[in-house]
Write a structure and sequence with these properties.
By secondary structure, this protein is of the alpha+beta class. The strands form seven sheets. Strands 1, 2, 3, 4, 20, 21, 28, 29 and 30 form a nine-stranded antiparallel β-sheet that branches. Strands 5, 6, 13, 14, 15, 16, 17, 18 and 19 form a nine-stranded antiparallel β-sheet that branches. It has 29 helices and 30 strands. Among the domains are: about 1-30 and about 325-490 and about 495-500 and about 510-545 and about 835-1014, Multidrug efflux transporter AcrB transmembrane fold (Up-down Bundle); about 35-135, Alpha-Beta Plaits; about 660-735 and about 745-830, Multidrug efflux transporter AcrB TolC docking domain, DN and DC subdomains (2-Layer Sandwich), CATH 3.30.2090.10. One of its GO terms (molecular function) is xenobiotic transmembrane transporter activity. Keywords: Membrane, Transmembrane, Transmembrane helix. This is Efflux RND transporter permease subunit.
């Protein structure tokens, strides 16, 4: 094939040129995003039920929804949590479930059970989780001093949101912190009682004044007119002018009995920028959009906003495109330094400027053509796929160096230029194909990991497969063609000299070779001990998910653990901001219930999430301690958590499951176990290292009890008392004004007085027209109450979070503890998920090793020789562990990727060396003067000399290309540094040992007799 293609260099060149042009066109159409558009198999149902207790939400709403959703196809887990005024149900599906259909199915079932839910309850929100839902940036909208915040909310909702949605690539715009205008009616109780009237008469007058005549029309000859009541109210003055009939027969304007005015609706949550109330607009990207084009457009739009709306300040925060820019920058750095160092190393070893130029052409062409595979597999340019390309680039350079070195060697042996190109490629073709297949045998099985990990590895595996496959085509077709064209005019006979630099290196190698093979058994014992000792270094290494990144931002999650209002929550956060003022560059906070449509977390009035951006790591460390001191001193009851601000990776991999949770259900009552029984039981729990789960957390509450005897005595109905209580303490909506899609509620104004005072002062009319105070019919008491009601598929449960180092060591004790109290006990948590993933990963790695072994066995036609290649891998891993330990790094996702890169290069070297030894043995054995043992020694020695140059060149180019990252700073360098340590450690120590270990193992393990089968 190579001979056929080389005979037509112009056709080959034009074909590659056409492919590159087509690839460039495709590259411009590929979406650029932060992460692959992965469907997370979860759906969240959110319920807002104002003024409802956790028990009421569980009994009246969540239980009904759970029963309606239990038959969903593919449903694995269902967890619900009812809190004050809010409730959530999280549905987790099997990963093979088509989430588009599941989302439709959930909405259909919600629609069916809507009639079974309490009257007036807003339809539950159904939120589907997707990686595209992670916002790419947040736009802060801050009203200036003296500007009406409600008007700014309307500006954000009606103007800013629509203008941002019109930007190319924007899929959704979400807002938090909006304020809405309502009309409040504040009755004048003294005036109402003086006229012998009740609040109900005011309410009835307002409802009558806002009534409609739906579908009523009159006929006037040949015309028909639809009627509209002209008495409908629009403004507070219209309401105040409504007539109210007094018992005496007098007509009284409503304005004499109540004060009516526009006010802001009571907020369940706020957004703060610094210590100022603001709105935040989160911008979400379309899956097919290019982030590097979207962000400049968004920034340009913000500059226009600043000009068009001077009454508002705008800020862009939490720009997630920094991660993508870091990945692209790392790829560019790898290409730049890889090319430069490859040029330098090749020039140093080969002394010919044309060889580096050939690699300089092949490297970007391979990368560009790889994007065609992206297009056909519908893969976007994202951090995962870019990391796959970065992995493949190192191996791509290796293939190019090996082919060029072999062609040069064939030419130096006396072959013509054409024959040298053909023979040089054919000789290493099978070995290079095997090395690529062995690398893919490690990556491709990872696609079958369950969950998000497998979905992420799909993009990476396709990227690695693409660039390696293309690199093979380039190395076998384009490189020899370029070599032939570049050297066709060179009539000079190659002298075959290695050059002074490589001659010195070769001399050093020879010294080491003589030393090792002079004491073969001792050397083999040394290598045999080196492998377990090196792998044992893993016990001294810390392990984590992602590497520690020097972030200048942090988050503070606070649960005040007190039944405070959203206003008090806001005031506390502002006080905290003011106490820390000047120590941060930017700060924002989501206080209380968040209004985001896509927010799938826990909504609670008593919780806040604060975000801080600092100027330096020193400021961050100092302020973190100040925050702890401030909260501990002023709010000792508060629960808080301080950590680095999560990026898109953290948000994707974060789990809502606790690490290890012991759950139980009361098998008798099917309800939460009462506090008075639960607390003594918990004191006898089998382990002491535990925390209360959500279903056991307590908060202070007030319990009202109606005095039925007095109600009966005075002829007052229970409904009358309940109606009065809802007017006093609830959000009592009289009616709504609806105009062109805009709804303005008319509500009774809630009193700011303490509830005890209201009970003493509020009057109730009895059947004898006498008035009595509400407090005579209502008793109240304070008591601690469960803060949340939690449930799953099986019903209501309570739980503790076990924090012991070996949480599953007492499983039988947990079950026995529950059985003694008639409780059904089960254990759940991330601990079991991790255990399952580790078992799955071990299985997949075993499959990978088997695949690698089978491929090599087919390549070498031997069952022993593949084991030599496999045994070189621990040497590289040991070298990587040593450098990671010395550098103070950890084992994480990036260092694991570095191990795979390094092992891919080492496998290539070992395969090529064994392939060369096998080929030379066949040549030497044909000579009658050479014995079998001599042929083996000559083949091992000569193969080491031949393969030394490409092994050193591939290792040195890879190491030198990565060294600048160690001394760089920033997010990209922090992410890539563990990868660099793995590669450098493996290639320096692993390659040096493998140079001698492969021939030594070959000598010991491969038969010295069956030379014809070698």
């Amino acid at each position: 094939m190579v001979r056929f293609l080389l005979a037509r260099p112009i056709a080959v060149f034009m074909t590659f040129l056409a492919l590159m042009v087509f690839s460039f066109i495709v590259l411009r159409t590929l979406p650029i995003s932060l992460l692959p558009p992965i469907d997370v198999p979860q759906i969240v149902v959110k319920v807002n039920y104002p003024n409802a207790s956790p028990e009421a939400i569980e009994q009246n709403v969540l239980r009904t929804i759970r029963e309606g959703l239990i038959t969903l196809n593919g449903l694995e887990e269902m967890d619900s949590k009812a809190g004050s005024e809010v409730g959530t149900i999280r549905l987790t599906f099997d990963y093979s479930t088509q989430m588009e259909l599941a989302y439709i199915d959930v909405n259909e079932k919600i629609d069916r059970i809507t009639n079974s839910l309490p009257e007036g309850l807003a339809r539950p929100e159904v939120i589907r989780i997707n990686t595209s839902d992670i916002p790419v940036a947040r736009v802060q909208v801050i009203p200036k001093e003296g500007i009406d915040e409600i008007e700014v909310s309307q500006l954000a909702e009606n103007v800013l949101k629509k203008r941002i949605e019109q930007l190319p690539g924007v899929s959704l715009v979400d807002i938090n912190g909006k304020k809405e205008r309502i009309i409040t009616v504040e009755p004048n109780e003294a005036a109402i009682r003086a006229l012998g009237m009740t609040q109900q008469q005011l309410i009835s007058a307002i409802q009558a004044g806002n009534s409609e005549l739906p579908g009523v029309s009159v006929k006037d000859g040949q015309f028909r007119y639809y009627l509209r009541l002209a008495t409908r109210v629009d403004t507070p003055s219209d309401i105040e002018s409504l007539p109210v009939l007094a018992p005496s027969g007098a007509i009284v304007p409503l304005g004499r009995l109540a004060k009516v005015s526009y006010q802001a609706q009571e907020m369940l949550g706020y957004h703060l920028f610094g210590d100022r109330e603001a709105l935040v607009i989160t911008v979400h990207k379309q899956a097919a959009a290019k982030m590097n084009e979207l962000m400049p457009e968004l920034k340009k739009a913000l500059e226009l906003f600043k000009t068009d709306y001077p009454q508002v300040d705008f800020e862009l925060t939490q720009d997630q495109s920094n991660l993508l820019n870091a990945a692209i920058s790392n790829l560019q750095t790898s290409l730049l330094f890889g090319g430069l160092f490859a040029f330098g190393v090749l020039f140093l070893f080969m002394k010919d400027y044309r060889l580096p130029i050939i690699i300089g052409v092949s490297l970007p062409s391979s990368l560009l053509i790889s994007f065609l595979v992206f297009y056909f597999f519908d893969i976007s340019i994202n951090i995962i796929s870019l990391s796959g390309l970065a992995l493949g680039i190192g191996m791509l350079i290796d293939n190019s160096i090996i082919v060029l070195d072999n062609i040069t060697r064939k030419r130096e042996s006396g072959l013509s230029l054409f024959e040298a190109c053909v023979a040089g490629v054919n000789e290493v073709m099978s070995a290079l194909v095997s090395s690529v297949l062995t690398t893919l045998s490690v990556f491709v099985p990872l696609v079958f990991l369950s969950g998000i990990s497998g979905a992420l590895f799909f993009d990476q595996a396709v990227a690695v497969a693409a660039i390696l496959s293309v690199s093979l085509a380039v190395a076998f077709i384009l490189l020899p063609m370029l070599y032939f064209l570049f050297f066709s005019k060179n009539k000079r006979k190659e002298d075959g000299s290695e050059g002074a630099f490589f001659s010195r290196i070769l001399a050093l190698y020879e010294k080491g070779y003589r030393l090792v093979f002079g004491k073969r058994k001792l050397a083999m014992v040394f290598f045999s001990l080196l492998i377990p000792l090196g792998l044992g270094l893993s016990y001294f290494l810390d392990s984590e998910g992602l590497p520690q990144i020097e972030k200048l931002d942090a988050t503070l999650e606070i649960d005040w653990n007190e039944p405070i209002s959203a206003v008090e929550n806001r005031d506390r956060v502002i006080a905290l901001m003011n106490a820390m003022n000047g120590r941060y560059e930017k700060a924002e906070a989501d206080v209380g219930v968040r209004q985001f449509l896509l927010f799938d977390g826990e909504n609670s009035i008593q919780q806040s999430l604060l975000y801080f951006l600092f100027n330096s790591l020193e400021d961050k460390a100092m302020m973190t301690q100040d925050l702890i001191d401030f909260l501990s001193k002023n709010y000792p009851e508060a629960n808080y958590k301080i950590g680095d601000a999560p990026n898109a990776f953290d948000q994707l991999f974060s789990s809502t499951l606790p690490y290890y949770e012991v759950r139980w259900k009361d098998l008798t009552s099917k309800e939460p176990v009462p506090e008075e029984k639960m607390d003594p039981w918990l004191s006898q729990f089998p382990v002491s290292d535990w925390e209360r789960g959500p279903g056991l957390q307590k908060e202070a509450s007030v319990v009202f009890t109606l005095r039925a005897d007095r109600l009966a005595t005075y002829g007052i109905s229970v409904d009358q008392v309940q109606e009065q209580l809802s007017r006093l303490f609830g959000t009592y909506t009289i009616t709504d004004i609806r105009r062109f899609g805009e709804i303005t509620p008319i509500r009774l104004k809630e009193s700011e007085a303490r509830f005890e005072d209201l009970l003493r002062t509020t009057q109730l009319a009895a059947s004898d027209s006498a008035f009595y105070t509400l407090g005579e019919f209502v008793d109240y008491r304070y008591e601690d109450h469960y803060k949340y009601v939690t449930a799953d598929k099986g019903g209501i449960y309570q739980s503790v979070l076990v924090t012991a180092s070996e949480p599953d060591a007492h499983n039988t004790d947990y079950i026995r503890w529950g059985a003694e109290r008639n409780l059904g006990v089960s254990m759940v948590g991330q601990y079991f998920k991790d255990k399952e993933n580790i078992q799955q990963l071990i299985g997949i790695l075993l499959v990978s090793v088997l695949l690698l072994y089978f491929i090599l066995a087919a390549q070498f036609e031997s069952f022993i020789q593949p084991l030599i290649v496999v045994l070189t891998l621990p040497l590289g891993i040991a070298g990587a562990f040593l450098v990671i330990l010395v550098a103070g790094a950890s084992l994480n996702v990036m260092s694991a990727i570095g191990l795979v890169v390094m092992l891919g290069i080492m496998v290539n070297d070992a395969i090529l060396k064994i392939d060369t030894i096998n080929r030379l043995r066949k040549e030497y054995v044909e000579s009658p003067e050479v014995s079998a043992k001599e042929a083996l020694e000559m083949a091992i020695h000569r193969a080491g000399q031949i393969r030394l140059k490409p092994i050193l060149m591939t290792s040195i180019t890879t190491i030198l290309a990565l060294i600048p990252i160690i001394f760089s700073s920033g997010l990209g360098a922090d992410l890539q540094r563990p990868l660099v340590y793995s590669v450098i450690g493996g290639l320096t120590i692993g390659t040096l040992t493998a140079l001698y270990f492969v021939p030594l193992a070959y000598w010991f393990f491969v038969s010295k007799k069956k030379l014809t089968e070698a």
